[in-house]
Structure formats: structure tokens, C-alpha cells
Amino acid sequence: MNTLQRTLFKILPRSWFAAIKAESREWMVRCRCGYARSLWEAGGTRGKNAGTAHWLTRCPRCGKRSWHTISRTASSNQPPPGA
Q: Which residue segment(s) compose the domain that 54 sits in?
């Protein structure tokens, strides 16, 4: 866990933290080279969000710094709970 994730773990009730962690694992960070990993593994969090976001970051596989697309996994076509 990175600093943000550890801070959320310390200040949020366990059930809220578990919900944010579970939802963050449903979001994928994708590079143009095809490499994808969960947002949680990349050190991010996303809770009760919709749409697509972008991160300017370095890809662990190709090593290039580019805009990575953050989107929900294809298996979950429904909007986030509470949206």
C-alpha cells in the first residue's frame, strides 16, 4: 500500500476501506502497449466514480511515459453503486 492507501486504512471505518479497495480493484490502468493492471495495484483509489480518467505515468512493461487510461473492467458494465 502507498501512503494514500495507508492513510485511508487508518482513518476510515474498516467497511468503508474494504468497499473502496474492492471498487479500486475493478478499475484498470491501461497503457498503449497493452499492459493493464488494477488501479489499486498501481497505488490509486477510486470510489463511487464513473467515466474514464487518464494518468500521465511510466509503464512498468514498456518503460515509456505516456497517458494511461483508467476505466472500469469490461466485466462490470454497470454504474458504480450509489451513482
A: 3-72
Of 29, 67, 63, residue with least CA distance to 45: 29
Q: How far is CA 18 from the centre of its chain?
A: 14
Residue 67 and residue 54: Cα distance in Å, rounded?
6
Residue 42 contacts residue 24 (beta carbons within 8 Å):
no
pLDDT tens figures, 49-64: 888 889 999 999 999 9
- Cα separation, 60 vs 49, in Å, equals 25
Number of domains in the chain: 1
Q: Specify if 77 maps to a domain.
A: no
d(CA 53, CA 44) in angstroms, rounded, equals: 12
pTM of this structure: 0.73
